[in-house]
Amino acid sequence: MKTLVYSSRRYDRDFLEEANNSQHEMHFVEARLEPDTARLASGFPVVCCFVQDTLDSGVLRQLKEGGTTLVALRATGFNNVDLEAAGNYGITVMRVSQYSPYSVAEFAVGMILAMNRNIHRAYQRVREGNFSLNGLLGYDLHGKTVGVVGTGRIGTAFARIMNGFGCHLLGHDKYQNPDCLQLGMQYVSVEELLLNSDIISLHCPLTPETHHLINENTIALMKPTAMLVNTSRGALVDTQALIPHLKKCRLCAVCLDVYEEESDIYYRDLSDEIIPDDIIMRLLTFPNVLVTGHQAFFTREAMRTIAGSTVRNIDDFAEGRTNENVLKPEKVIA
Ligand code: NAD
Fold this sequence. Notes:
The chain is an alpha/beta fold. Helices cover 35% and strands 13% of the residues.
């Protein structure tokens, strides 16, 4: 099927072309899908999108007018899609329901290690001939309490690694996961988790219920020595609310791979430009904040699975088959 791949970079193209094997006619554009670029899809029955693309009612209407019948997301999260509007316009939406949970879990652990032991700062220092250890003091992870919010695939992979470090595990989820219970995880309320954890890692989806789960009031519950890690979705955290706590040293460290206003910033080289977002720019001034550009998923294994699954979704749609990746409006979670 004729497919327009939005927000595509060289690496997306490489993995998709390998998986596609010239089966579907794929065209690649770097542009994000948004109201101004939706017309590019005119004449394409399939558009393939990523997390920063806008798929609200207005954009979906434009896609429908251009003849699009399938949106193939190359992501698990779908908080950027108005599924009800898609249903009304007769557009099928499919996602990649799962791929290497290790990619994200391992990245979250990488952020914790880098932040706790100041590896990112040491790397810069020694390159300038500064071998001093001042300011680089960390703590043993062994024996610390780690709180996991959302104990699905990624949360469980993360919990397994932290269990290997000898950490105590607290969990919060709507459902208790037997694999996590087997690791000795204790399920508690979100308040109890925030009060008692040395490290808090978010692995739940973004829903109306979890929007700004971490806010002024819930940050106040955390230990002043706590580290917060978000590799899930930016809007789980009220980012602005972090700043006063960081300024007063009431939050020890923050690692963010995702940011609620990331869609105008991430996946682009803005090194020659003025970035108008004052919140992220202020965050970057704190030595105890580590920000990365939504890269936790970015491993060869994950990219290969995402591409393979995306092509299979298009195959199934073309052949009139359904599969577990079709999103229904009632499943409005991301
Ligand atoms: P999953 O569906 O396997 O697990 C999500 C878990 O969250 C489930 O156990 C669910 O019950 C739980 N949950 C739902 N609502 C909750 C709530 N209100 N409070 C606590 N827990 C709740 O999903 P997954 O594959 O583990 O992915 C988790 C999230 O990670 C995705 O939703 C996505 O937003 C994010 N993600 C980020 C990246 C990245 O590159 N940074 C990549 C992939 C996924």
